[in-house]
Write a structure and sequence with these properties.
mainly beta; 9% helix
């Protein structure tokens, strides 16, 4: 039975196999521009697409009709502190023009069901936030009704999308484009400077056309770029290109084909989606590609994950790329992590720089924001880079080794720019200020996470103080909410946050009493390092922003030395610094009541260093946080003293111009630093001033400092006057006690207490008048020293140009391997410094052993100091090095042989380390002293006894000659020297054409040459001695401007010797044209573009090289002047003309009669006077006759007296009579298309 069933089954199979197939096999079409494809559905209707262009991404498919009318983006400000809405307040009222997080992009690329679309900006397009009844927050995503294989046929592409100024001002750009997209309404001109316009790349499947893609549609398919709805009406539709110089407006294509602008929240514009077809996988099941028979297909063989752009890309590698061996663990309740994503984070800790114990240095804790686990290596490197760069700024640089810096790897799920979940929930508000949000995820205490959560855990587990936590941060303590955490400020000087972004922003929060002490800075913005240093100035130094406009409260309420509202120079806080370096008093902006001491300060403009006032406050602030600092000496300066800017009344003008007048005057008088060489031989009789300010850091001991200043020759000797008196001066200054120290940000202070900013401060000015008979030489400079009570040099004339070098700190085990969770930082120190560091006894759970690289001058870049540690319970193995026996000399002690351990520094008597030498003096061999001989040794100056052991001199003394020129002690005979007869050879000054020569003396007896009048310094090679190089030419410039007919030139010449140094030709502006000289009336004001080129073909720049003015009334038919006025390097004018012609007409009928015909035409009554009819027997209208119709309301004309049965060619045009320069002239339109008529007999 089973065999029979099997046979029947096989027979059926064979029968089926020969049945004819009715299903068409899938085929792969060759898609061309103009082909149609039907794919997907929306609102229960299939969507027809057309290939409108083919570029590097493949076939560009555009919806044939408008699929819906929807707002581009909602105007809601419910979530204005996130994404693009945070960058412009106007977007709260009009919606955002930023494509990347727009509602439109979210919806077009979503497959979500109704009400489930994930809106990338967090602001759904709901009722009240888009116009009319256009809410679509409850709609399904556009791709919801597409099959998976249809979505697969849409290629995921990365393409250029232009951005507007809220984005490019924040650095949200790619490439090096640097301009706004010009606003042209004509589709042919809309892409004029597209390639140089600000953009970023976006990745998506479905999108709106941008202007370049719309321009391509126009080029390829002409009028197809104009859209129609399903009722056949032309309809405007959105582009994804913003109006780039605007906060909010979008571009769109109007129903007439013009490019317009519109606010994104309006719902009446159409949506015309586009995508790139994946032609490699797309196959069709039917159709020929025509409109009536479109290709129907998909990509069934393309393997693709479910597609959405609604969730930002999370970390592709969820594993840490840093060591977690040293970590802190937090428990964060709903106040800090309401969504629970970061409720129990592990935070790896890295030591970046630890030069001393945490209890001796300022501890800085840096956390990361928007770095995923696999990006923590980048975070560590970012911290090292930003820290190293910040330490190049004074006053940080002077305290660089007094910081301990830790990086805490607070990992986020998403990168910051992706807009997903980040550890701190940092937002950037509409004022470009970053802050930890208290609103996101309902985490009202998130802003206090540093003091309440991270700080206490760090101090207990990592900080050398190891203070146990006082309370649970997830429980509000009874009484004060903040006081239990005040101790955190005693151990951590600054919390910082580095955000993983290229965006440019920064903010600092510094109210310790209420639990805020952190600043936020970006990692990779174009000025990230500068921003870090600026925000650190807020957080650590207590400095205010100098760029903010407006008013300040009463001066007594100010907390920072660098801001004031007191205009009286006698009362201004920085009155002692006025006139020192760039210290002035000026408004920080025109009309502002806020005063600053300098325009050149990083607290106002990050292109500068800290000003002198901010440096002073910085030194004072940091001196309160570390020990062993007792004096601050600002880098001194020397100026020619003229009396200018020397008294308070010189600083009453607070405007910008006065500040710059002061700096110009100071620079002209400066004689120190890089201006040392400005001192010259014409300074006789003039005054010079040595100036600095000194802050006593002690509140107990007054100080007394000595200032020395002298004129120094190039050989180091002191210059003199004609009597040989040295040109030098000395003065002592008393530096008062800092009585008010306890009120100025002492350690543990929660807020600044009103203090006397001038307490302990001394302005020191040493003025010296150079004698009129000073013997000055070329190459002389002003030298100076500032000395303490013990003669130690605190500053000198080389301090300002002091060379700095870098030092790196490494942390290693005895075997040379790196200690986990360390990433040695780098800081800057003065060249030649001997580092005086005391390594911390412990690092994590390791015990200090030794240090390499200390106590020797730092004389090269890249010096490394290595701290060695071991496990506390680890048995130490001695690594012994033999110190060879050394014999003592007469003056130097020797030693017997012994061994030292490189690890623990102990000494041993044997190579096995079993016999320790506890008395290290026992191996020393004392020096025996000299053994002098009895025989006198001598030279032509002295005589002496010689040590028989080392041959050193003993009893050395000068010869004592008798009248016979023989030394009475040693018998040495003195040869009587030649007496020179010296004549002065005067100095010859250098000019710009030949070198000079210093003065010297010539002996008339022996012919030798000498530098000095006493003949003690012989010049052996006169040709090479004392030469003074030619001085530089004194360059002046004349400019002959180019004109349209003649070249110009720029000539640089020496005003002294009149030599021409260089000549640069300015090519004449030889080509001046209008882009169009004849236009047709359209009811709009016409402004044809002017194109000006020089004779080399270079296009001149409007408003830089020339300006353009147009005649009025350019809306009507007429002839109009365009005046080009040259400027800058060009002069002259040129007037061009263009004509606006009336609109043409066309022949509507030609009726033949007997030897006549009647012609009718289309009425054209606007901006016309009448018409002309022209007819001829020749198609070329030779010997044509023209008949004028004087009324523009007449639309027909009978032409008679013609030949019968003859063929005539007829055409019509309009004209308008206008007055130009008092004369009436006619302006004609173009002729209509000619038509023919044959008269009757």
């Amino acid at each position: 039975m089973s065999k029979k069933i099997t046979a029947i089954f096989l027979a059926l199979c064979m029968a089926i196999s020969v049945l004819p197939m009715t299903i068409q096999a899938a085929s792969k079409p060759d898609i061309k521009v103009g082909d149609y494809v039907k794919m997907g559905a929306y609102n229960n209707a299939s969507i027809l697409w057309r290939c409108v262009s083919i570029d590097n991404n493949g076939p560009l498919m555009l919806a044939d009709k408008i699929v819906d009318t929807l707002a581009y983006d909602a105007k809601t400000n419910d979530n204005s502190n996130s994404k693009s809405h945070s960058r412009s307040y106007k977007r709260d009222d009009y919606g955002s023009n930023y494509w990347k997080d727009s509602n439109m992009r979210s919806w077009l690329n979503s497959t979500a069901a109704e009400g489930k679309v994930d809106w990338l900006c967090g602001n759904p397009p709901k009722d009240g936030y888009v116009s009319g009844v256009g809410a679509y927050n409850e709609k399904a995503g556009f791709l919801n009704a597409f099959s998976k294989s249809e979505i697969a046929a849409m290629k995921t592409v990365t393409q250029r999308s232009l951005v507007s100024h809220p984005e490019y001002n924040k650095g949200i750009v790619d490439g090096d484009a640097n301009s706004d997209l010009l606003y042209y309404t004509d589709i042919s001109e809309a892409v004029a400077n597209y390639d140089s316009s600000y953009f970023e790349t976006t990745t998506e499947k479905v999108f709106l056309l941008d202007v370049k893609q719309a321009n391509a549609v126009w080029k390829n398919l002409k009028g197809y770029y104009v859209a129609y709805n399903n009722d056949g009406m032309a309809w405007p539709y959105w582009l994804r290109t913003p109006v780039t110089d605007c906060n909010h407006d979008m571009r769109y294509i109007s129903s007439s084909g013009q490019v317009g602008r519109y606010a994104p929240w309006y719902s009446d514009l159409g949506v015309r989606p586009a995508f790139y077809l994946d032609s490699e996988y797309f196959v069709t099941t039917s159709g020929s590609g025509s409109q009536s028979s479109p290709y129907i297909g998909s990509a069934p063989n393309k393997q693709e994950d479910d597609y959405t752009i609604s969730e930002p890309a999370e970390d592709a590698n969820p594993d840490w790329n840093v060591s977690t061996e040293q970590s802190i663990q937090l428990t964060l309740g709903p106040w800090y992590s309401n969504d629970g994503k970061y409720s129990n984070p592990t935070i790896p800790v890295y030591t970046i720089q630890k030069t001393r114990s945490d209890t001796e240095n300022m501890v800085v804790v840096v956390c990361g924001e928007g770095y995923t686990k696999s990006q923590q290596g980048k975070f560590i490197n970012d911290v090292k880079r930003l820290w190293q760069d910040a330490m190049k700024y004074e006053p940080y640089r002077s305290y660089a080794d007094r910081f301990n810096v830790y990086a805490l790897c607070t990992a986020s799920e998403s990168t910051f720019d992706n807009g997903g979940s980040t550890f701190f929930d940092v937002i950037v508000d509409k004022y470009n200020s970053p802050v930890i949000s208290n609103n996101l995820h309902g985490s009202q205490w998130k802003n206090h996470i540093f003091e309440r959560c991270i700080g206490p855990e760090f101090i207990e587990k990592i900080h050398d103080a190891h203070i146990k936590k006082k309370c649970d941060p997830n429980t509000i303590p009874s009484g004060s909410e903040y006081e239990p955490y005040y101790y955190v400020h005693d151990y951590i000087a600054q919390f910082a946050m580095v955000v993983n972004t290229k965006s440019d922003f920064g903010g600092a929060y510094n109210n310790r009493e209420y639990g805020f002490h952190y600043f936020i800075s970006p990692s990779d913005s174009y000025r990230a390092s500068k921003t870090f240093a600026h925000e650190f100035g807020h957080g650590l130094l207590g400095l205010g922003d100098e760029y903010s406009n407006g008013y300040l409260l009463d001066d007594k309420e100010l907390k920072s030395l660098n801001l004031s509202s007191v205009e009286d120079p006698e009362k201004i806080k920085w009155r002692q610094l006025l006139g020192f370096r760039n210290t002035y008093t000026c408004r920080n902006a025109y009309g502002s009541k806020m005063l600053v001491s300098s325009y050149e300060c990083i607290m106002r403009d990050t292109n500068y260093q800290f000003c002198e006032v901010c440096r002073l406050q910085g030194f004072k602030r940091m001196s309160q946080l570390v020990k062993d600092v007792d004096l601050y000496v600002a880098t001194p300066e020397v100026k020619e003293y003229t009396g200018a800017y020397s008294k308070p009344s010189d600083f009453t003008d607070l405007e910008t111009s006065s500040y710059y007048n002061y700096t110009y005057n100071r620079n002209d008088r400066l004689l120190s630093g890089n201006s040392k060489s400005r001192f010259n031989t014409n300074m006789n009789g003039k005054k010079i001033e040595l100036r600095t300010v000194i802050q006593n850091i002690s509140d107990k001991n007054a100080r007394q400092l000595k200032f020395k200043m002298w004129i120094k020759h190039s050989d180091g000797s002191v210059a003199t006057d004609s009597s040989g008196n040295p040109l030098q001066t000395v003065q002592t200054f008393d530096i008062p006690v800092w009585n008010d120290k306890a009120n100025f940000w002492p350690l543990g202070a929660l807020d600044h207490i009103k203090s006397d900013f001038n307490s302990g401060l001394k302005s020191c000015s040493l003025i010296y008048q150079i004698p009129s008979d000073a013997q000055l030489k070329s190459g002389d400079t002003v030298a100076f020293q500032v000395l303490d009570e013990n003669g130690n040099v605190l500053a000198d004339d080389n301090t300002e140009t002091q060379r700095y070098t870098t030092v790196s700190i490494q942390y290693k085990f005895e075997d040379g391997s790196e200690i986990p969770n360390t990433a040695g930082g780098t800081f800057t120190v003065p060249y030649g410094t001997k580092l005086d560091l005391t390594p911390a006894k412990t690092l994590y759970d390791y015990e200090f052993i030794k240090v390499d690289g200390l106590n020797k001058p730092i004389v090269s870049d890249g010096t490394v100091v290595t701290y060695y540690y071991k496990n506390k319970n680890e048995e130490h193995t001695h690594n012994l090095t033999l110190v060879a026996a050394k014999a003592a000399t007469c003056t130097t002690a020797g030693n017997s042989a012994y061994y030292t351990c490189d690890g623990c520094d102990k000494w041993f008597a044997d190579a096995t380390g079993s016999v320790e030498i506890t008395d290290k003096t026992s191996v020393k061999i004392p020096a025996p002293g000299h053994t002098a001989g009895t025989e006198w040794k001598s030279d032509d100056t002295n005589h002496w006894h010689e040590c028989s052991r080392c041959h050193d001199k003993k009893d050395e003394a000068a010869h004592d000659y008798g009248s016979d020129n023989v030394c009475d002690t040693c018998g040495y005979y003195k040869t009587v020297p030649h007496t020179h007869n010296l004549t002065l050879v005067a100095a010859k000054a250098a000019t710009c054409t030949e070198g000079g020569k210093e003065a010297y003396y010539k002996c008339e007896g022996c012919g030798k040459f000498y530098e000095d009048v006493l003949g003690t310094k012989e010049i052996t090679d006169l040709a090479s001695w004392g030469n003074i190089a030619k001085i530089a030419h004194t360059t002046k410039q004349t400019v002959t401007k180019a004109t349209p007919t003649a070249n110009g030139k720029i000539v640089n010449y020496c005003s002294v010797c009149k030599k021409t140094l260089s000549t640069t030709v300015i090519p004449k502006a030889s080509s001046i044209k209008l882009k169009a000289t004849s236009l047709t009336y359209n009811g709009k004001v016409r402004t044809p573009k002017v194109i000006v080129k020089d004779r080399t073909g270079k296009t001149l720049v409007k408003n830089t090289d020339y300006t353009v003015s147009y005649a009025k009334g350019r809306k009507y038919v007429g002839k109009y002047a365009v005046k080009i006025t040259f400027k800058g390097k060009y002069s002259g004018t040129k007037t061009l003309y263009f004509t606006i012609k009336p609109k043409a007409t066309s022949i509507s009928s030609l009726k033949a009669g007997s030897k006549k015909f009647t012609v009718k035409w289309k009425k054209q009554a606007t901006q016309t006077t009448g018409y002309q009819v022209q007819y001829s027997a020749s198609s070329k209208f030779s010997k044509a006759k023209t008949v004028t119709v004087g009324k523009n309301t007449t639309v027909s004309k009978k032409i008679s007296k013609l030949s019968g049965k003859k063929k005539y060619y007829v055409r019509v045009r309009t004209y308008k009579t206008v007055k130009i320069n008092g004369k009436s002239i006619r302006i004609y339109s173009g002729w209509s298309k000619a038509k023919t008529v044959t008269t009757k007999k």
